[in-house]
């Protein structure tokens, strides 16, 4: 059974002559443990697709099953829990909270999930160790380099042990060398069995995954396995 099952997904904006099709009947299934990149030029609909997969946005038409649940039928509360606990989001601009320490940033999803203080601490420190930032636990994000901030964001994304890691241009704000280190981290997470969906406009980054899905003008044009 696929983790992500999108059938004929459409996303449109506007009405009548102003109607603009952003995703045009996208069908796609992703199995547990896959490492997939979605490759396409700027404006092709990648972030829109990622937001639908991550339940941050809803499709205008079509059917989306996430772990066999019909997303359309879920309540706002259920969607909020899925966004916090089942999906680990990683963005180009890291999106850490600037006034919170590195450790507090990583702990945050566990606070929302109602995990006890002691377990929060233990799991967050374990993840910081995993990304090599134990010594930065008490630092503020602004005291870290871009690559380190993205590692914190990855630790935060992993802390709830989500089903899917969803990354939108995760190396887009990093220099090449730092970007490569981040890609190595994704590679090792994939080897550990994580399901990873990564969005990129960079073909060299896309090639790191086992499977590349091309999107152009809102249509999936090619699926490589
Ligand atoms: P990508 O991530 O591939 O660069 P996006 O998914 O961000 O592309 O955007 C795809 C298209 O959808 C673009 O033409 C963009 O202008 C349009 N779009 C995205 N969000 C909205 C919105 N809220 N309202 C209208 N058009 C939008
Ligand atoms: Mg985008």
Automatic annotation (TrEMBL):
GO cellular component terms, A-Z? membrane protein complex
Protein family? Belongs to the ABC transporter superfamily.
What's a Gene Ontology MF term here?
A: ATP binding
Report the domain of life of the source organism: Bacteria
CDD domains registered for this protein in UniProt = ABC_MJ0796_LolCDE_FtsE
This protein's UniProt keywords = ATP-binding, Nucleotide-binding, Transport
Q: Where is the ABC transporter domain?
A: 4-225
The molecule here is called: ABC transporter ATP-binding protein
What Pfam family is a match, any one? ABC_tran
This chain's source organism reads Exiguobacterium indicum
């Amino acid at each position: 059974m696929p983790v992500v099952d999108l059938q004929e997904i459409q996303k449109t904006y506007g009405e009548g002559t102003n109607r603009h099709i952003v995703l045009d009947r996208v069908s796609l299934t992703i199995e547990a443990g896959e490492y997939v990149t979605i490759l396409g030029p700027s404006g092709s609909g990648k972030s829109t697709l990622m937001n639908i997969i991550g339940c941050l946005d809803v499709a205008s038409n079509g059917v989306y099953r996430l772990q066999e649940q019909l997303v359309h039928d879920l309540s706002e509360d259920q969607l909020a829990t899925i966004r916090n606990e089942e999906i680990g989001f990683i963005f180009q601009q890291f999106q850490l909270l600037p006034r919170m320490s590195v450790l507090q940033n990583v702990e945050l999803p566990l606070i929302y999930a109602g995990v006890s203080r002691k377990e929060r601490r233990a799991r967050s420190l374990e993840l910081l160790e995993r990304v090599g930032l134990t010594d930065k636990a008490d630092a503020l994000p602004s005291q870290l380099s871009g690559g380190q901030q993205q590692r914190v964001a990855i630790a935060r994304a992993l802390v709830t042990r989500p089903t899917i890691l969803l990354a939108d241009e995760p190396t887009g704000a990093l220099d090449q060398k730092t970007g490569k280190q981040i890609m190595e981290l994704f590679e090792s997470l994939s080897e550990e069995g994580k399901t990873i969906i990564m969005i990129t406009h960079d073909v060299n980054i896309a090639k790191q995954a086992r499977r590349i899905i091309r999107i152009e003008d809102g249509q999936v044009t090619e699926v490589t396995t």
